[in-house]
Amino acid sequence: AVLFVGGPGTAKTSTILQHLAQQDRSSTICKKLSFSSATTPLIFQRAVEGSVEKRQGRTLGPPGGKSMVVFVDDISMPEYNEWGDQITLEILRQLVESKGLYNLDKPGEWNAIVDLRFVGAMLRPGGGKADIPNRAKRHFHVVNVALPSVASMQQIFGSMVEAHFR
């Protein structure tokens, strides 16, 4: 799993989406989820379960025997509870760490979920912005995304303005 961390405007999301668009569609499908302060564990779990199918017994996986990349944008956004936990990230951590989730319809039943890979993106912590708990972060390779140089930004946005006003 990979976690891209950077300031606003560093093109984390667009870079990830461009890379995911280049994946071989015959073997890989992509699922994009955007977290917000209203994202609950139930919403996340239902979104994942809705993207997989039964493979064998209590083992689930992406349709057609493919693998699936789950891209979670704004991974640090779910609300903290009174104990300082982000319970939505605990469900994500359980899925990454244990490769499965408990069945919401049949309490106590475990469903293994195979062939998933994870990519996340979040703002750099600080300035009132939240970090994610180390329990979840330890499962990700963290990549810092720096702001482009002033010259690069002038070239990018300058060419857009020039094309628009030509």
Question: What's the mean pLDDT score?
Answer: 90
> How many alpha or pi helices?
5
> In which range does the helix fraction lie?
25-40%
Strand content: 25-35%
Q: Describe it for me?
A:
The protein has helices at residues 12-21, 41-49, 87-98, 134-137, 150-165, and strands at 2-6, 28-34, 53-56, 59-61, 67-73, 100-102, 110-113, 116-123, 141-145. The protein has 166 residues and is of the alpha/beta class. The protein has a five-stranded parallel beta sheet with strand order 2-5-8-1-9, with helices on both faces. The protein has a four-stranded mixed beta sheet with strand order 3-4-7-6. Helix 2 packs parallel to helix 3 (87-98). The longest helix is centred in the last third of the chain and has 16 residues, at 150-165. The chain is globular.
Keyword list:
single chain, 166 residues, alpha/beta, 4-stranded mixed β-sheet, 5 helices, 9 strands, globular
Task: Record the SSE blueprint.
Layout: E1 2-6, H1 12-21, E2 28-34, H2 41-49, E3 53-56, E4 59-61, E5 67-73, H3 87-98, E6 100-102, E7 110-113, E8 116-123, H4 134-137, E9 141-145, H5 150-165
Parallel strand pairs: 1-8, 1-9, 2-5, 4-7, 5-8
Antiparallel strand pairs: 3-4, 6-7
